[in-house]
Amino acid sequence: MKHVYTHDNIAVVHSAKNILALNDIESFVKNENTIPNGARHGIENTFIELWITNDQDFDRAATIIEEQLTNPPPTPPWHCSKCAEENDGSFDFCWKCQTEK
Ligand SMILES: [Zn+2]
Predict the structure, then answer these.
(1) Cα(75) to centroid of ligand 1, in Å?
(2) What is the whole-number distance in angstroms between the Cα of residue 90 and the centre of ligand 1?
(3) What is the pLDDT of residues 26-57, one digit of tens each?
């Protein structure tokens, strides 16, 4: 087992895990149940770790995470179907009227 990635946002760690799963790399998340509520801004912030099960997958996993998460491809902006407002590509909902992308 090898530690491959750490982030303080559990959603980011889980998306990394999903990306690895899509590439047939088995991994698991550590520390996900130990985040103290209300202590997220202190130095005692618990970082959530992603570990791979098979050491031989490490190089491939590290490369995939680097490419997909550290340098994600830019998402083009989109226009809301309801109010026509332009939204940043990272938004899933219109910032103005909350219509889903
Ligand atoms: Zn809108």
Answers:
(1) 18
(2) 15
(3) 999 998 776 555 555 554 567 899 999 999 99
